[in-house]
Amino acid sequence: MNDEIKNIKKIIINSSFELDCGKTIKNFPLAYETYGTLNKSKNNAVFAFHALTGDQFVTNVNPITKREGWWTTAVGPGKAIDTNKYFVICSNVLGGCMGSFGPREINPETNKVYGTTFPVITIRDMVRAQKYLLDHLGIKKLLAVTGGSMGGMQVLQFTSLYPDKTHSAIPIACSASHSAQNIALNELGRQAIMTDPNWKKENSTPDKGLAIARMAAHITYLSKQGLQEKFGRKLQDKGSLKFGFDADFQIESYLRHQGATFVDRFDANSYLYITRAMDYFDLEKQFNGNLSLAFKNTKSKFCVISFSSDWLYPTIENKEIVIALNACGANVGFVEINSDKGHDSFLLDVPEFLKTISEFLNSTYNEINNNEKRI
Amino acid sequence: MNDEIKNIKKIIINSSFELDCGKTIKNFPLAYETYGTLNKSKNNAVFAFHALTGDQFVTNVNPITKREGWWTTAVGPGKAIDTNKYFVICSNVLGGCMGSFGPREINPETNKVYGTTFPVITIRDMVRAQKYLLDHLGIKKLLAVTGGSMGGMQVLQFTSLYPDKTHSAIPIACSASHSAQNIALNELGRQAIMTDPNWKKENSTPDKGLAIARMAAHITYLSKQGLQEKFGRKLQDKGSLKFGFDADFQIESYLRHQGATFVDRFDANSYLYITRAMDYFDLEKQFNGNLSLAFKNTKSKFCVISFSSDWLYPTIENKEIVIALNACGANVGFVEINSDKGHDSFLLDVPEFLKTISEFLNSTYNEINNNEKRI
After folding, report:
1. A2-179+282-374 maps to which CATH number?
2. pTM for this structure?
3. In what helix (H) or strand (E) does residue A211 lie, and over which residues does it extend?
4. Active-site residue A310, yes or no?
């Protein structure tokens, strides 16, 4: 898999890049993918930011994992983010494991993988690196930035850092800073990895710990009701209970499968670094406790979206973003989508959600083009 | 610690005892503790059932762990379950690790600890064993059975199995069967233990896996809001972020501490067996899908209690018990206590909750004694 990753599309950022941790990096890769065609006016570009375990392969089949892209429900020809109309960009985040500068990359100074010698990165670092990609692509102003979960955090960070670089922003199922519960859940995953005796051992990977981390996270992506409807107390074999510790219930088998398959596609250290970045994210703190100051120069139109059954980034946390945007006079709409599918809803075929994105993008696009025609 | 456990109070159940799994056990210990004095009429006894990681030491200092009993907030002289007035009984459950027959006990046939050769037990097995203790103590009818979480499940199972053995029942923060989410959370803990390379290894214990299991469980015992109020994003050291993977946030340090101290007092295999019993519990299934039949012969008065911020056993699941009790014409009251402390509320000093128990017990006690005087 590593060899294939070497050949995927990327830019090399040559500038000296000072990370929030204080270290400076340079000549580092940022892997990316694009879908659709950039129009002549270069005003149809949508930057999609991925979540914790996502990557740049938003739609179609991921050439490395051979699995469907993480947002095929939303992105593609004729879909809500219509690649016949829009030019969709996505980059693997700093710290990731799909070709961007991350702990699985080789440190040229030692010729060994970075592993835990990789510097701790932040959401702000991720977004600043992605800005280089925009410049590389020659895009002065995006039509929209969007993303769910950690992708939404990047949306907020991007609009705050670059208030005139996007016409619109769609932060989905996210928060301006991680709650104590979310830090706790991430720490649980990190502890599972870091207490695996194979962690930091040469020629081995902490697969068991990473699988536990994934199982824990997966539970949080679904709602209690959604799990109940999908699995309830259904048994794996239709017969009776086995009175042992094999997977008796379908939910057990499902979770074990989620854990086992995840380790094939994800790097345990990337999991540590990216969850750390999420926990460190605190846009309010960046502006001395006043979140609305984060957006005070924004020229973007916002559409904030939450899901009714998302308990990881509940509606109340999404509303705090709306309140801050309102407080600085930004143009902001807010929709809570009814769904029993929990946090995962943003990745699923939830028609009301997809329609919201589609219509918001469409109206933004029309406004821009009508304005340009008028001018 | 094992030597001290040998000397604690217990009965030996000599009868052949057929477990739900089909195996028969005999001559096995059931450890217990009592508080207060059984009155002459033997009508002041309250059986408190403990939760997953509890034991028979309800109040005062646990002589083995040197920690406070798990329900000191509710049980003691002058407290809601007043040991000046009531005789409180609690027994370590089958499968436990505080002197009752469990995986840490020595198998006399092999002279080794049972470990995973211990039979899988159920809530019904636990309750049937506890009935022997009642007989041993010469108590024909309890004033009340009570308990929270898994303790509440035992309350439901007890009243169903022995409809005329208690005047009243107080199931707290529980459910008549585990939801898919709760099974998932327990499975997460079991996987953490079972993938620890020290599990089932002679002379070693899967401490790291058990600590992870405890951390995961601990998160579920608290509400999002409660965690936010208690910890928020407070840093461990007042300075700034450390840009590493040590505990930066107080919540991380707290969780690590919860995990680390738990392994000193609990057996990893007991954790497996008891969570399995909880997942298997399905009172509705015992009565062919009609929960109200579970209580059709009950003569007990019920007081069902839930907590508003408990997302592990939410109010809706407690209400299903109330609905079933109503459907069979039982005498049942229901209270949802407002608390932001999550599932843990039943162990904490929540005045409205403690008052509810106190008044319910008091009125039950007065009714019985007035009736007896009248007769």
Report:
1. 3.40.50.1820
2. 0.97
3. helix A207-221
4. yes
